[in-house]
Amino acid sequence: MNKIQHFCTLLLIVTAFLTLTSNPIFAHFGSKGPFGGSVNCATVYDSTVYIGTTNGGVYRSSNSNLTGWSAMPVGLKSGKITALAHSGSYLVAGTLDSGVYIYSGSVGTDRHWVKINNGLTNLKILSLVALDSITFLAGTDGGGLFKTTNKGATWADIAWSHHSITALVKIGNRILGTRLVGGVYVSTDNGDTWSSFNDVNTVNISGTISLIHNALTDELSVINANGIFILSNASTTTTPVYRAAQTGLTAGTVLRKIATNGTNWYLATDKGVFTTATNMINWTNANTGLQTQDVTIVMPFRTNLIVGTNKGGMYKSPSNAIAWTAHNSGYNNLETYAMETSGIAVVVAATEKGVFVSTDLAATYVRANNGLTDSLNVTYLKFLGSVLYAGTKNGGIFTSADTGKTWSSINAGLTNLHINKIFVYTSNVYILDANHQLFQYNGFNWVSIQTGLPANAIPTSMTFYNSKMLLGTFGQGIFTKSVSNGVWVAENTGLTNQKVTAVATNGTKIFAGTDGSGVFVSEMGAVNWRQTNLTTISHTVLMGLDGTKIQEMGFYNGYLFASYKGGLLVTSDNGTTWIAGGNQFNLPSYSNISTVTFVTTRVFVTTENNGLYSNALSELPAIVSKSDDININLNESVSISPNPNQGQFKLHFKNTLLDVKSVVIYDHTGRQMQIIYDVKGLETLDLSVNYPAGIYFVRVNAENGSAVKKIVIQ
């Protein structure tokens, strides 16, 4: 099948959609678990709950019954969410290391975060509050308090330089804030000036971390190093008197966040959830159904309570009868270290909670760690036939012949039990350890295959072709050797960037992905590298992501995928043309994509803190297996000039009797841009007004078939 056929079959699929609508629907990459993770903060607006995670960005549940979560990761440069606030018009998020973001960007119907840090001299955000639809305060870690009156276009430093501002609350015309050391402060002029709002229980007490107002009782609750303290008449008093509110709590309990639904207070601690009526403080635990007591937040929502935990995911309970149930559907926030797939439906994921196996295409998972003594530190997974290999950080190599049900170690001959990667070829298994040493397993022992490599070589990747091994190294390029014997030989002719991060093969071609120069290709015979025409994905460019920094490559059925932070590219013509590997608006902009694997119907990728994402191969541009109506003779009779062009070009038809039914223009993702039915005598097209520079496809539909031509608008 030639490259025209590869791309054209995509358009056949797209055209089926177009018979129903002029705007075809392309599936987004979706989260595929395993579900769970860590929670750091939360906020509610109307019927939507937003949660911020320790490393995995923001999630939301837009159903009043909280039936599931969806990720909101695009545009964030950090997944470390420390604060959330909603003004009624805008959602803003504070991060631990990358400042403040507002959820206001859009690309078509897709939404994304926009960084709003102009004027912020400290990007370590601890707290946020909305004063009106476009006015926000942001408290920082050691950098004081900042204010914006134009939804983040500019920020001004307004108070408390060099202090950590841990909580902010708006009560009528009052704003209350806490300093980590210093206690509670009040402002009545939208944060421009502040005065102490303390008594002896709160003033200059360290560890002041949580603040909440009970609108029903007009009480303010604050947590500091000495415990919990409650203030009455919080909206009116000018002489605050705080009373201790620890009754019923076990000594040594670590207090984290406090919340209220009006009639009750709720407390998140390292010993689970505690609750008490507001009219008589007597805390009792409320942990029925919780699988972990390491609770980080608790929040009322309508008639329910929501709990977030450290690595244990989300829970939900009716507020009138505590009975917690796990609530993690769509919440794929576990740190994920490795992934492997096989056949039609097998998916294996190694996470911070251990190894999980799915045999139903990631619909459900079971834990699979029996005998895997370093299960929380699995670094790599690889199938060789039906045998699954796992590399670990501390325990070396493990194998399983029953898809993870039982494991055994095979470490004889290894000099370092910290394994970075595993490679397989026919019946051979190879590993790369943390000392950058390569070994091959001979059935009994691991044997070094380092001979010929420079002493300071840093291997990154390996593939195989024509009984040869192809090794990528970071800084010294490509090396090859025979599978059966010999030494490594450098093969770097034409490779202008020798920081190789990934290698792959496809047909008679070999490929090298680099850190900063995209992908290079060479014939398998006499190696002579040339740089491919790598494109970029528009929304990742908008996020400032670099598509030339290749992280991983994967080959499937004639198609080569190349990943970079936040994006995935694919080529079906050996690098002559690259396009987006599907609609990637769910892939986190802050996350590396360290693995690309396939089952027969789907592509899977890993992200470090948001688990696995997947998309159907049938829904991805250029991922096809056959074409039934591409007419090769017709395709050869159609030409375009000039090409490249400025958006103005001519269609040329060798067959003047050709009965053209329509001409359709698609962008590089396969999205229809324009369809022209009145094509009688059509020769000249002008796309210079509405079409930005980029790659497009022109499909000519005739009575006896179709032709597709690529054009480049400069």
CATH superfamily of the domain at 335-448: YVTN repeat-like/Quinoprotein amine dehydrogenase
- Can you tell me the CATH architecture of the domain at 335-448? 7 Propeller
Got a strand count?
65
Q: Tally the helices: what do you get? A: 3
Low-confidence stretches: 1-26, 620-628
Q: What's the CATH topology name of the domain at 335-448?
A: Methylamine Dehydrogenase, Chain H
Q: Numbering strands along the chain, what is their spatial order in the largest sheet?
A: 1-58-57-56
Question: Whole-number radius of gyration?
Answer: 29 Å
CATH class of the domain at 335-448: Mainly Beta
C-alpha termini separation: 29 Å
Percent helix: under 10%
Overall shape: globular
Largest sheet: 4 strands, antiparallel
